[in-house]
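Appendix B, record 7
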Amino acid sequence: MPTISLCMIVKNEEEVLANCLSSVAGICDEIIIVDTGSTDNTKEVARKFTDKIYDFTWIDDFAAARNYSFSLATKDYILWLDADDVIPTEEQEKFKALKKTLTDDIDAVSMNYIVQTDNHGNPTFHYRRNRLVKRSKGFKWIGPVHEYLEVYGNILEADVSILHNKKKKKKADSQSIGRNLRIYENRIKKGEEFSPRDLFYYANELKDHKQYKKAITYYREFLDGKKGWIEDNIRACIYMADCYAQLGEQDNELTSLLKTFAYDEPRSEACCRIGDIFKSKNNFKTAVFWYELAIKMKDKKTGGFHQAAYSTWYPHLALCVSYWQLGNVEESIKHHELTKQYIPNDPKVLFNEEFFKNYKNSKNANQ
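Structure tokens (predicted):
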């Protein structure tokens, strides 16, 4: 059975690190922690799990830190996690089964990364990342910020999920606030040329910091370069639509969403967002077209970011409202029932359930 090294870079993660390391203790044969300047008890927490703790002087370069951590590994495969990632109990068993069947011809293993969940623990935002790589291949991390692991060869898509268990820290790290944006802007000052990926993620940072007009400028530059991955192109259009929505420019929001169709088949998220715009204008007939299309495209698997709501309950709930407004009670109730299959205890569903119950009672009384 192959052996696994866990390689992590950390800084001021005393509140979450134990949960992460506990979830992999029965999976990994070696745990390597590279600390980039903690001022709390992160190292003390790590020592409960491993004695392989190293320091790395922070140089505003995530790839450099991760590559250093990888260089310290000694086992057959390398697993990487962030401190606020955990492998849920049921996924640990899947991972152990994977480890037993992992053959030497596998160069890398991608796993599902669950970034957000609903109140019931169901994934609402997820995508795949290459998590486990063969050490002998010497794969490297690329990019000072929003770094990525460049892999090639025989890549296995595993049925294993890792949960990003993001929690607001009690002690905020002042240096980490705005850190990614600061790294990008320092690179601009130095005259560095941005790759297409840099342009995309810099625009994302600008959007997250509510610099919407500037973000739009960089999304356009990224798209005009015509060198982006299809999924990033589509996501750039959707994020640009977010910026226009924040600026109150609905026509430009609609244009940005429609632009996603220039790159691939319609995505459920874009269709629902377009439907929302027409619904807000009380153009329910057109809204219905877009929500129905979202449902038809729900099985599209892309490997990119996936907002689960837009391909499950959201279009059905919107169709319930839209068909009611069009006077089609039968279709409205049908989509209410379909919505209920996904989120039965949601307040909106419970409200509609009572609404239709009263409607039917009133109708029967009149008859």
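Remarks on this record: Residues 4-164 form a domain with the Spore Coat Polysaccharide Biosynthesis Protein SpsA; Chain A fold (CATH 3.90.550.10). The radius of gyration is 24 Å.
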